Amino acid sequence: MERPKNLRITQRTAIIVIILFHVVGLVGLLLPMSRPLFLQIVPWHLLLMLLVTILTHQHFDNRFIGFMALLFVAGVAVEWIGVHKHWLFGNYAYGKTLGVKIFDIPLTIGVNWFLLIYAAGITMQRSRLKSITARVITGALLLVLLDLLIEPVAIHFDYWHWAEGIIPFKNYYCWFLVSAAMLFVFEKFGFKKQGIAAPVLLATEFVFFGVLGIFGIFV
């Protein structure tokens, strides 16, 4: 089922929005005078990226809606297990930056898991890797690398914090396992080849958190 044209945006428009809002957000977070405001709009930034992703996905149908819902619920669930049971990731808790929480878990974390898995899945879909196993493993490793960049930024800007300020190794191998499981689900949904907006989002996240990690935590 094709989405009505008036409810779609072009890949070019999506890429412009993705890059523009990440650049604006980056500048806003790097400047001490504007940082409090930009920290407040972090959840809205995630929702904007969700909207862009939805409006660029081809064949918007019940299968895609089901995938979004499944990843959102799974994302919130694994974080609940992590926060309350410490079976996944380690001993951590969420701060205020990611917005409204239910049972101590920000709802936007479900959005974030969907965005990351979708972006990594599409990136692997567009790669030359023919094996599902290779795509899942490579995509999961990419997300672990991204998490290495996210962690110091997240701690500094009160996304979440770790008990005693120590990031356990468990966090990274759990990120790999959870990401791999979700990417396997992505593969099984069998979406047709998508445009480059999602890979651009993934690449932009690497740049965004890389620059913040280098400069943002020192200003």
Automatic annotation (TrEMBL):
Top-rank taxon, per record: Bacteria
Organism, as annotated: Mucilaginibacter psychrotolerans
Name the UniProt record assigns to this protein: Carotenoid biosynthesis protein
Pfam family, one: Caroten_synth
Annotated transmembrane regions: 12-31, 37-57, 64-83, 103-124, 136-157, 169-186, 198-218
UniProt entry keywords in alphabetical sequence: Membrane, Transmembrane, Transmembrane helix
